[in-house]
DNA sequence: AATGAATGAGCCTTCATTCAT
DNA sequence: GATGAATGAAGGCTCATTCAT
């Protein structure tokens, strides 16, 4: 379809090579259609390359998919860097954690298909999820969220209760990504931009801090 | 379309008719493989019936899928019936709502594939989600959850704030279904039985009531 | 779509490429079985190529059929070229027209299946007939036959009468193609070769010129 | 679809039985779609009967088709009856023959699908044509048309020439049936009712009588 | 006589992949 | 590195037919 003519002897720098063109196109298509629904032809056509190119550059359709999902789900930066300037108070710390976790999930600067793909992978794991959890989610929980929660609750709560609280916090955040098909239907005019992320983070933080405080208070009584 | 009455004198328990055999088999296959991944042949083979049977009893692969998803996602009873014995205090009412919503999502008596399928459809909508939201989710939110939240907060909060609270509540619940692939990886020994549903519901209720109270209190001050 | 150039040094005569193999085979099969009766498998098997080849080179079974029918029905050359050396007298002109029209329909050098296919399409239109009429039949009638008839009749006859005469002339010719199943049964030993075409054309010409003259004469009297 | 209730104990006379309903419906469907294109389901649905009824009353789809084609192609009455009042002059006789042959082919009182089916069978014989030719066409030609032509031409013409004349006459007539797809495209507003049949017959008669006379005259000279 | 359910064969099409260049 | 052509394996669906009632 799209014929490209090489006119200059010197290879043009701005011209994406076939491999990259495939990666971009495949990300969108996989995000829209899922692994089974996407076809190699749809990908190569959108990329403007030959059908055989996928099998040439990547071994497989599956191989290409894995490569793309892993890239889409990898964190921007290590949590420790993001959290560097975290304030002293555990309340502020949780607020910051929630904000950055939300931003990790919903960052409007990231191409939409990456978020879509991550949501897809979370609901329907194909193997990339293990790596995603190991590299991003579990460190966030174990090294940042849980310590903060412990600090907030003293040693009043059992591990089980702490876990439930962690789930409550992360669940509220994740829901904005995973539950999007539902929330979009319930609130059709609810858009998520940079401002909304801040608003939502503030809401979740206050909501959760109150819940944590309450659970801690009642635990003290028992 | 196809109405069937069993009039045979001897009640044959183990004998299913073709239509039902297809429904059972298709549910599992769709849950395992998704709509695109499932093949009619896989379904009919597992059901032990002819390939053409799907086309005869249901019009389409898509029609069969829709029928199954809607059935898998439909609430056992109308929310109004479930809520009949709801107590007077709005706090208890919210507690009850959360419990029943969680039970709707996680009911251990339901075959596992139904929950899997519901999660799949929510993360990866195919058209059946619209009906699912219209019939189950939206009524729950608009006719039960929101009124209770309004009662709990008086008229102190804006619609936006109420919506965020509703999302926080539903998000915590939904996360136990949608986020299962993640929670299973984070807490490998976390099983969800009848007892856990009660425990989780109680946790979410207390956590959320505190959050609601706090947001209401701070709103009053302004 | 698919442009192909043979650049190989050795002119391989017997080797056809896949596309051409399909065209040959499909022509015969369609002529024998009709569009509905023919199966892609029958075509590809006879062509000795893969089933998917039809879909690759032509989009559809329907597309392939259309392509073949249009090719089978297209005149060897434009009528204007054929008529270049037409003589001056309108009588001779009509004679020539009839001959060339008959030759277009019955040309013994054309593979028999092309004629069969043309007859089939004329009796059982599938959409290709529209184009066939527009490109071949209507120009012949409007630009060549009708002017000649007008010249032969002066302005003595109404449009309706001229149309009927045109139908009489074309009907006699067409009948040798369309009515072949009947004429073969009535005259089993009636073969149509190059000589017969000339004989038939001469017959139709003399028969028709007399009819035209008679109709013109009686019209003059009124 | 169409549920029919038997209310009266006595079988109603006006109610077509299943067999007849199939015959009516099948005629139309076969005429529209051809043998291969028609489906048993289309027929039984139009007839308002069960799918299995065709195989029950007729053995086959093929059997049903044959039955219908034979019926559609059978002549209304024997030619000898139709020709009873034929006038003495051979000219008038030919005129009458042409009219009745045209009427046989185009009779507006006959359901349109019968004509369509006959045309289909003539262009694309499936076996019923043999009987059609034997019973209707050949007798017309041999016992009525040829004798009249012989009378008109004396013994001036060879058998071959007489045959060609017969073909010219019958071809003009047949073309109004077989060539309808073409004539409709060339003359979109050309309808064939009872009046047109008379007009066409008169035209063909005068046209042909002149042709015959001319061929006879020139033959005499040689 | 008539029917709803069920069947197996087969059709068109599409897909991921490979081959020759 | 990159491509157009070609392939075999299914896949969804439809069809004529038969079975049990």
Describe the structure.
The first copy, chain A, has 222 residues and is mainly α. The first copy, chain A, folds into two domains: 2-71, Orthogonal Bundle (Arc Repressor Mutant, subunit A), CATH 1.10.10.60; 74-221, Orthogonal Bundle (Tetracycline Repressor, domain 2), CATH 1.10.357.10. Chain A has helices spanning 18-37, 40-47, 52-57, 61-73, 79-82, 90-106, 112-123, 128-153, 159-178, 180-186, 194-221. In chain A, helix 9 packs antiparallel against helix 11. The longest helix of chain A has 28 residues, at 194-221. Chain A is elongated and about 65 Å long. Mean pLDDT of chain A is 87; it is low at 1-14. Chains in contact: A-B, C-D. The structure holds a DNA duplex (21 and 21 nucleotides).
Strand and helix map with partners:
Four copies of one chain form a homotetramer.
Chain A (H helix, E strand, L loop, with lengths): L17 H20 L2 H8 L4 H6 L3 H13 L5 H4 L7 H17 L5 H12 L4 H26 L5 H20 L1 H7 L7 H28 L1
Chain B binds a DNA duplex (21 and 21 nucleotides) through helix 3.
Q: Kindly state the mean pLDDT of chain A as a whole number?
A: 87
How many helices of chain A in DSSP terms? Answer: 11
Number of strands of chain A: 0
Helix content of chain A: over 70%
CATH superfamily grouping of the largest domain in chain A: Tetracycline Repressor, domain 2
User: What is the assembly state of the chains in this entry?
Assistant: homotetramer
CATH class of the largest domain in chain A: Mainly Alpha
Which pair has the most extensive contact?
Answer: A-B, 50 and 51 residues
* Fraction of residues in β-strands of chain A: under 5%
Q: Specify Rg of chain A, calculated over alpha carbons.
A: 21 Å
Question: Helices and strands of chain A: which structural class?
Answer: mainly alpha
């Amino acid at each position: 379809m799209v014929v490209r003519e090489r006119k200059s002897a010197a290879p043009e720098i701005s011209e994406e090579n076939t491999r990259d063109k495939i990666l971009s196109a495949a990300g969108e298509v996989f995000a829209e259609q899922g692994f089974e629904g996407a076809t190699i032809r749809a990908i190569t056509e959108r990329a403007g390359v030959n059908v055989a190119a996928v099998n040439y550059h990547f071994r497989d359709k599956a191989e290409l998919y894995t490569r793309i999902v892993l890239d889409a789900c990898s964190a921007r930066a290590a949590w420790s860097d993001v959290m560097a300037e975290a304030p002293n108070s555990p309340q502020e710390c949780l607020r910051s954690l929630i904000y950055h976790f939300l931003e990790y999930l919903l960052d409007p600067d990231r191409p939409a298909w990456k978020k879509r793909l991550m949501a897809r992978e979370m609901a329907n794991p194909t193997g990339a999820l293990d790596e995603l959890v190991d590299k991003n989610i579990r460190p966030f929980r174990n090294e940042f969220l849980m310590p903060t929660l412990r600090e907030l609750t003293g040693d009043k709560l059992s591990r089980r209760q702490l876990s439930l609280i962690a789930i409550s916090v992360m669940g509220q955040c994740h829901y904005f990504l995973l539950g999007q098909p539902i929330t979009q239907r319930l609130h059709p005019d609810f858009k998520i931009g940079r401002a909304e992320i801040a608003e939502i983070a503030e809401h979740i933080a206050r909501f959760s801090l109150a819940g944590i405080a309450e659970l801690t208070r009642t635990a003290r009584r028992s």
